[in-house]
Every structure is written in structure tokens, then in C-alpha cells.
Write a structure and sequence with these properties.
252 residues, alpha+beta, Rossmann fold, 2 domains, 7 helices, globular
Length: 252
């Protein structure tokens, strides 16, 4: 994909678009960037959104995902993808844990804000997506039953409320050691097959004399759980993907 400068034919205003591999504008991005131009956002702002959304759609293409059917765990994978050097994003090269992140926190947050604004605009124009602000578990009450849920903290109470809605998969991240055991127990008690891992990395930190050391970052507990079905053998079509094309296997 390529970010391309354009001049609007009617107003002669400068704007930007994102071209796909076929050299045609990527339609969902084009609609949003045209909207930003129409409300007189500066060309530099439109350009920044174009680059951010190009990264998002490039990630979706690499994962063979439809932009209208992404899951919260896909957003988490997008953050990890952004931190990789460009060559590593395609799997062409391996990356050691000590390699500096390609995108810093500020850049990642800006790109996530751009993606969020893009989806809010899409929701206002008939695409079936929406952002619901609120605090869990109370904010879950008016929502339809999900097929997959990402829980970024909140503990056993939130996990229990989420599991009560019977999604096919639940992914949980936790920073506190004391919450990992109860979270795993809550998933298991709710009828899920749960597994997990401790994710930890180290970054290069400078030392006097032009040398470096490895500086540990805070570890994160990652739990993933799949609903245990009691469907009898032969019922249903084996091998078909889950709801909304959910992919089998644990998240990385």
C-alpha cells in the first residue's frame, strides 16, 4: 500500500489517499480521509491519518482479515506488529527480544486513536461497529452476546461477567501476579479450557562508554480460553471456522 498526495478536483484543496496494490484508492480509507478534508482538517493531519490507516489495513491484509470483522485480540496483535521493524512484519527476518521497538508508545497510541476514529466514522455511516464507553462489568449489560472478548485487566469479577455471555473465546492480560491464579480459576469454573503464558521482554539501555545492557520490562500474564462444547460427535460440520470466522489456536 502507498500513501499518495492528491488535489481535490472541486475545491483544489490538498489531501491524501491510500492506494492498494491495484493502484486504486482503498475505498473505506478514502471515504474517511475525504470526510476529514471536507471538515477542513489540515493536510498534515489527513496525511498522518492516511499513514496510520495504511498500517492498519496492511496488517489486516497480512492476516487475511476483513476490516469489518476484526476482534479485540486482533488489535492487540496489531500493537505487537507495529513494534516490529518493517522487514520483520512480513516474517522475512527474525527479531531478538533486545531489539529496540520500531514504534514508541506515543506513535502506537496515535495510530490506535486513528483506527478508533475511523471505526466511529464508519459506524455513523451504516457499518455495524460501535464504541461503547463505560466500566465493566456494568457496561456489558446492554451489549449483544459476543463471539470473542478481550479483557485488559479487571480481575475475576469482569471475567465472570464476560463468561456469563458465553463467548467462544476469551483472552485476558494481567500485570499483577496475584490476579493470574483467580483469573485462570474463573475461566475454568465458567466452563472454559484455559491456558496461559508469562510474556516478558528486555530492551537495550545505554551505559557509559558506548555500551549497552538489557533492561527488563514489566512482564504480563496472558491467558486464553476456549469454550468447552458438549456437542455430540457427528453433530455439526467438523473443521468449519467458528463464529464470524474466528481462527483456531492460541493467540501469540
Amino acid at each position: 500500500m502507498l500513501v499518495q498526495r492528491v488535489v481535490m478536483p472541486d475545491s483544489l484543496l490538498e489531501s491524501w489517499t491510500v492506494l492498494g496494490d491495484d493502484a486504486a484508492p482503498v475505498e473505506p480509507i478514502e471515504r474517511y480521509l475525504a470526510y476529514l478534508t471536507d471538515i477542513e482538517r489540515s493536510p498534515n493531519t489527513v496525511k498522518a491519518y492516511a499513514h496510520d490507516l495504511k498500517d492498519w489495513f496492511s496488517f489486516l491484509k497480512a492476516r487475511r482479515l476483513d476490516w469489518r470483522e476484526v476482534r479485540l485480540e486482533d488489535v492487540g496483535e496489531f500493537v505487537a506488529w507495529l513494534r516490529l521493524p518493517p522487514l520483520a512484519r512480513t516474517g522475512a527476518v527474525a527479531v531478538l527480544p533486545s531489539v529496540e521497538h520500531h514504534c514508541g508508545e506515543a506513535t502506537v497510541n496515535r495510530k490506535l486513536s486513528a483506527v478508533s476514529a475511523f471505526y466511529q466514522h464508519a459506524a455513523r455511516h451504516g457499518v455495524d461497529v460501535r464504541v461503547v464507553p463505560g466500566e465493566a462489568p456494568g457496561a456489558l449489560g446492554g451489549l449483544p452476546d459476543p463471539d470473542a472478548v478481550f479483557v485488559g485487566g479487571g480481575g475475576a469479577a469482569v471475567i465472570g461477567a464476560v463468561a456469563a455471555r458465553h463467548p467462544g473465546r476469551i483472552v485476558v492480560t494481567l500485570a499483577a501476579v496475584e490476579r493470574a491464579g483467580p483469573a485462570h480459576a474463573a475461566l475454568t469454573a465458567a466452563g472454559y479450557a484455559a491456558d496461559g503464558a508469562l510474556v516478558q521482554a528486555a530492551r537495550l539501555a545505554p551505559l557509559p562508554g558506548g555500551v549497552h545492557r538489557l533492561a527488563a520490562t514489566n512482564p504480563v500474564f496472558l491467558l486464553w480460553a476456549t469454550a468447552v462444547t458438549t456437542e455430540p460427535a457427528g453433530a455439526g460440520d467438523a473443521g468449519l471456522p467458528g463464529p464470524r470466522g474466528s481462527r483456531p489456536g492460541a493467540p501469540p
